[in-house]
Amino acid sequence: MDKKEKNNLKKIILQKEGEILHEIKELEIKTAPIEPDCSLGRLTRLEAMQEKSINESILVKAKIRLKKIAFVLTKIDSEDYGQCSICEEEIPYGRLCIVPESTICVSCANSN
Ligand SMILES: [Zn+2]
Prior knowledge:
- By secondary structure, the chain is mainly alpha-helical.
- Helices cover 65% and strands 0% of the residues.
- The protein has helices at 3-30, 42-75, 93-98, 106-110.
- Helix 1 packs antiparallel against helix 2.
- The model has no long low-confidence stretch (mean pLDDT 91).
- Zinc ion binds next to helix 4.
- Zinc ion (ZN) binds at residues 84, 86-87, 89, 104-105, 107-108.
């Protein structure tokens, strides 16, 4: 990976970080406690609670992803960024553009 590609990846990662932060904010609003005296009907309330629990699991995943992204940002300037942590092969640039927080290559990911 050359310097230009690395700078490009940094931009992608920072952009993703911003997107996830935004997503987390919205999910936190959606997962706020449902008022017990809200004027929703019983069924609507049940639906609201189901939706809330779905959003809660999305929120947990988004937070994990944010942690990974933050970790990658601290690693991107080091020599071993973009290297598979299992087989030490270089992870293809195209894959890093899509999943910049990946720390293992496709073949290792598939054999796990
Ligand atoms: Zn590998």
